[in-house]
Design goal:
about 300 residues, alpha/beta, 5-stranded mixed beta sheet, about 45% helix
Length: about 300
C-alpha cells in the first residue's frame, strides 16, 4: 500500500489527487494521512539506525554472542531506555543474531570400583549465598598439536567461575588444581558442597583427600545422568558456543583465549539474569551478596 501512496504523491503535480486515488483504488484521506506522516517515519527510521549502531557495538563487545535478551539488558545497563520488542525487531532487520548452543560428546569415564559420595545437590542448582555450593566438570577443546582439557568450579549463587585449570590430560591433578584455585580465592564456607559427576578424576582418592583436608563436602550425581550436574553441563555448552567452536593452532593459544574469556569476559562483563537482582555479571552478583551480608 505504501507504494501506491508514494506513486500518488509523485504524480500529483501532473494529475489531480482525486483522479489518482480513484485509479489506484485508495482512500483519499488515507493518502493524505500517509503524506503527513512521512516526517515521523523518517524520524523513526533515523532512530532505528542509531539504535542498530548501539546494538552492533554491544554485539561486537560480546564476541558476537548476545541475543535479544542480553543485548536489551546491556543497553539498559548502559543507560539506554529501549523496549525489548523494539530490539527484537531491529536485530533481525540488520541480521544481528546471537549464537545457539550445540550438543557435544561426554568425557565422563566412571570408576566402577570407587565408592561414590552422596548427592547433596539433588538437582537443586540454587544457593542463597556464595561459597556454599560449587559444581564442576571437565571438557576438552581441540588444538592442532592435541586437545586441551579444562576443569572448572562454578559457584551456584553467582554463576561465577571460582576456579579453573587446564592441562593436556584429565587426571585427578587437573580437578584438584581447579579446586585449589577456587579455595585460594577465598569465600568458601566450611562444609561447602563440591558437586560433580562420577568421573574417575572426581572419584579418585587424591581428589577425595583434598576435599576433606580443605573442610569441604564432596557430592556426586548418578552414573550416566547428566541432569544431576546440569548447571555445569549448561556452562560448558555456553562456553563452547560463545568462545567459538574451532581448532586452535597451539595449546598455548587456547590457554590464552580460555583465560581471557573466563576472567575478562564471562566473570566480569557478561550479564546474567539473577532471580533477585536482575541482570548482573557474576562478579557484580557476588559483590551484591557481600554488601547484603555486610548490611
Amino acid at each position: 500500500m505504501s507504494e501506491l501512496y508514494r506513486l500518488s504523491r509523485a504524480e500529483k503535480a501532473n494529475h489531480p489527487i482525486v483522479l489518482l486515488c480513484r485509479v489506484l483504488n485508495v482512500a483519499r484521506s488515507s493518502c493524505y494521512a500517509w503524506c503527513e506522516g512521512e516526517a515521523a517515519r523518517h524520524a523513526r527510521q533515523a532512530a532505528d539506525d542509531a539504535l542498530a549502531h548501539e546494538i552492533t557495538m554491544v554485539h561486537i563487545a560480546s564476541r558476537h554472542t548476545y541475543g535479544v535478551p542480553r543485548i536489551h539488558a546491556e543497553l539498559r545497563r548502559l543507560g539506554r531506555r529501549v523496549n525489548r520488542k523494539r530490539v527484537g525487531r531491529v536485530m533481525p532487520e540488520r541480521d544481528i543474531r546471537g549464537v545457539t548452543r550445540r550438543k557435544g560428546r561426554s568425557l565422563t569415564r566412571p570408576d566402577a570400583k570407587a565408592k561414590p559420595a552422596p548427592d547433596l545437590i539433588g538437582r537443586d542448582f540454587h544457593a542463597e549465598r556464595p561459597g556454599t555450593r560449587l559444581v564442576g566438570d571437565i571438557t576438552c577443546l581441540p588444538a592442532a598439536e592435541g586437545r586441551l582439557c579444562l576443569a572448572r568450579r562454578l559457584d551456584l549463587a553467582t554463576r561465577e567461575v571460582a576456579g579453573h585449570a587446564m592441562a593436556d590430560h584429565h587426571r585427578a591433578e587437573l580437578v584438584v588444581d581447579a579446586l585449589d584455585m577456587g579455595y585460594r580465592r577465598g569465600g568458601l564456607e566450611p562444609g561447602c558442597v563440591i558437586h560433580s559427576d562420577r568421573g574417575s578424576a572426581y572419584m579418585s582418592a587424591r581428589f577425595r583427600d583434598r576435599t576433606g583436608k580443605l573442610g569441604l563436602r564432596q557430592s556426586c550425581g548418578r552414573t550416566g545422568s547428566c541432569v544431576d550436574n546440569a548447571a555445569a553441563e549448561s556452562f560448558w555448552a555456553l562456553h563452547k558456543e560463545e568462545i567459538g567452536t574451532r581448532i586452535w593452532p597451539h595449546r598455548a593459544t587456547t590457554r590464552v583465549e580460555v583465560f581471557s574469556f573466563t576472567e575478562t569476559f564471562y566473570n566480569r562483563r557478561r550479564p546474567r539474569k539473577h532471580r533477585t537482582f536482575g541482570y548482573l555479571t557474576p562478579t557484580e552478583t557476588r559483590q551484591r551478596h557481600q554488601h547484603a551480608l555486610a548490611a
